[in-house]
Design a protein that fits this description.
homodimer, globular
Chain lengths: ~475, ~475
């Protein structure tokens, strides 16, 4: 059985941090002479105070984190962050309704980017800053989760990557995690800084550059503009953001190697090559399709194609063109990309390139196994045979993903959504993307969905973001035994 | 490398039979005094002659059928049957266009039931008889294929059932197959006869009773009426057909046990219990939904529900109510059923209950494996642990199924279909169902689809009917080597 005190203590520490991060909106509000300084102060104070309380009440606990504690901490951590994260929205009156505020906040911390806001440009700078910051913090959490925590827990094939990271021993969450986490966060910071600089050099204002860099690196997709990136009619900005979305969807361990000029190691990574291949392949096909079916020129067709492709495959969700207005074949390609997701160890959501590749390889290997029934034909990744257990685990993940999606489409239709909107809302929430199809397409939002539907989609975002098993395991009676 | 002479010889024998079966339409035409007797005679003569030719040209071949020959024979057999099967349609002028005739015929032999006909009731009795017969013959083929051939080839988990059937040795297709085939066909014949009798006792005429019994037992779904079973407003007929559709979707080995009063053996079969559970579960939920959302009474709601549920889950495709007019949540349930399919060893298409169950079990077992990382936790079916290789094989099958479906939706959209129709046409063709969603729903047909689209869907029917691998393996270069 997991130890609730351990959980409380760690969540306490995290909440103290969250409170401090809320206070970062205070200088923003001061600079822009906005009148919600007090609200940010109170929000941060309540959050930090709650954190201190949890921390001190569990002071005598010897901090030994078991695997089971890990599951509880991760899931409840994202939940608690989202609950307290609503405070700035509610206290400033930006989103007075709690359901809406929670939806917006968990959509932030899960780096989804689905929004209920119709009036983004009416919001204060402080609120926009906090909204972007939820995604950036969510992204930091995901990097540590996917590269350091999940491999230890053995979830959905993430152990394939554990070996490459200098890190934890399989039994407990080792203190050395901290050191590795700092290195990976270093990359995250550098990328964020570089994007801010490059966007600022372009025509984007500093504030917008900061906010968008936060939500790019998190593959979150919250924008400070109602029209998302389409607000800027600048090829430079579109390409810069495309580039950084691509980086955010890349395994951060690979970026770490890249910074140390170990490019061969990057190129030897099979998932990366497939990721690049999928991006280029889909971009070229869609660019051709756009060129043939719209009046746009070659460059605009290519730009609109690659931006949307990278935005969807990395699960960022920025928009420069309304893909629902494209010809059906191209919509289907974009919709298909919603089931890919970023690389493992990136901030991207969805099933992940690595799992899709293992699934496809296992299927084609099965044909070879039929032809040579007595030969042992394993799935190979990075030239190593993948354990059958890991393959089964990955296929179980994908099956869960599909089953959850199908059941959820039914549930959302009970909340009154039509067929396409039900599918769109589920796929985009579970995959942490942002825009979907139907009435939750790239130019619309989630405001019209009923309260029940919003809570259900919030749960889907959490389940998707935490790689399904982390949340589902909590519903297993065996988990709470002994 | 497979031996083309072996294939030619066996196909020759089969074609001779097909020719004789075409002649069965002659007495039908004579009884109804229709003027297409000569056309049926010529069709049968051409087909049998082609068969004799192939048979005698390969007279000196020693008939040793290897596994590789098996793949070639099965796939080319279904193709050749469909090519020659177009003759009655074309020569009588019922379907003058070859593409349309081929679509209608392969839809028959694959027991799909998707039709391009707008004027079913204008056709002669002889043609309607042949059309129904293609499905009945297809069903006979499928019983032997799924229970005797595929387990030997090791395709997609079908080996789980091989043990239960007194039958072939793993290496070659053993002569004892014949004896088992005859027993299973005996059941098929008895069920068909019983249904004819029961429908005839009801208000259905003998001719319609025969045709519908043919297409029920094959889970084919071709009707002699444009409105399908909705033509008869008789609860008795609806329930009788529901019952026989259910039997047609049951493993025929279990029916064999049932005939020998070994009911415990039937009940001990896990796939059967899940099949029954899914049918009842979905029927009750949809019946409740229909009762609440339509003005219909309890009995009518239940009947419309269970008829459509059994028709879709068994991939028969008969219709007594237009499910696309139901409320979205209920449409989604029906759509979900399109991914189930009948039991393994039945005439039903789709992924099959057994595979869905193994997939779901593997996913839930994975949660247990995460909680107890050092325990060996296999997937169990019928209280026996399923080999990991078989589980991987089944998951590979489902992955292939999904990938083929997704790629095909894109392809069909290139033929000008909208999103929903593209999905509907693909799912119903690959699953050998008949009606889909969108413009190929239960009250419409496939006439409006372009020629290219019809050929593509024809290929999908074949691939789906032959459990994917049987066809896909032919595209593997390794298959043709040595």
């Amino acid at each position: 059985m997991p130890n609730p005190k351990t959980t409380a203590r760690i969540l306490g520490i995290l909440l103290i941090f969250e409170g401090f991060f809320m206070w970062l909106s205070i200088p923003v509000a001061l600079i822009y002479k906005e009148d919600d300084v007090l609200q940010f102060f109170i929000s941060g104070a309540i959050t930090s105070l709650a954190g201190f309380l949890a921390y001190f009440l569990t002071k005598r606990v010897h901090l030994e984190v078991t695997k089971r504690d890990g599951y509880v901490i991760v899931t409840s951590g994202w939940l608690i962050f989202s609950f307290f994260g609503t405070l700035p929205f509610i206290l400033t009156g930006s989103i007075p309704n709690f359901t809406d505020a929670f939806f917006e906040t968990i959509s932030g911390f899960t780096t989804t980017g689905a929004s209920i806001l119709n009036n983004i440009e009416d919001l204060s700078h402080g609120i926009l800053f906090w909204r972007s910051l939820t995604q950036w913090l969510g992204g930091m959490g995901i990097i540590v989760l996917s590269l350091l925590v999940l491999p230890v827990l053995g979830i959905g094939g993430m152990q394939l990557f554990a070996a490459e990271v200098p890190g934890p021993t399989p039994d407990k969450l080792h203190p050395r995690v901290k050191q590795t986490a700092k290195r990976l966060w270093g990359i995250y910071l550098i990328f964020t800084g570089a994007e801010i600089l490059l966007l600022w050099i372009g025509e984007m204002g500093l504030f917008d550059a900061v906010c968008h860099s936060f939500t790019t690196m998190a593959t979150g997709g919250y924008s400070t503009k109602q029209a998302s990136i389409a607000h800027w009619d600048s090829p430079y900005i579109h390409y810069v953001i495309t580039g950084f979305m691509f980086l955010a969807g890349t395994n951060f361990t690979l970026s770490y190697f890249g910074f140390h000029l170990k490019f061969r190691k990057v190129w030897k990574n099979e998932e990366f090559r497939y990721y690049l291949g999928f991006v280029l392949g889909f971009s070229l096909i869609i660019a051709l399709g756009l060129y043939l079916t719209t009046g746009e020129g070659v460059e605009k067709s290519f730009r609109n194609s690659i931006f949307q492709v990278v935005s969807i495959i990395t699960t960022t969700g920025y928009i420069t063109a309304d893909y629902l207005k494209w010809t059906p074949a191209l919509i289907i390609l974009i919709f298909t990309l919603m089931f890919f997701g970023g690389s493992a160890g990136s901030t991207g959501g969805g099933p992940k390139i690595m799992r899709i590749v293992v699934m496809l390889k296992n299927s084609t290997q099965e044909l070879k196994r039929l032809i040579h029934p007595n030969a042992v034909i394993p799935v190979r990744l990075n030239k190593h045979a993948v354990d059958t257990e890991v393959v089964t685990n990955i296929l179980a993940f994908i099956a869960f993903y599909a089953v959850i999606a199908i059941v959820s489409v039914f549930v959302m239709s009970l909340f009154g959504l039509d067929f396409e909107t039900a599918i769109g809302s589920v796929v985009t929430s579970l995959g942490n993307i942002g825009p979907g199809i139907g009435d939750v397409g790239p130019t619309s939002n989630f405001a019209e969905i009923s309260d029940g539907g919003k809570w259900y989609l919030s749960a889907l975002m959490l389940v998707g973001r935490l790689e399904l098993f982390t949340v589902l395991i909590l519903f297993s009676p065996a988990f709470w035994r002994k």
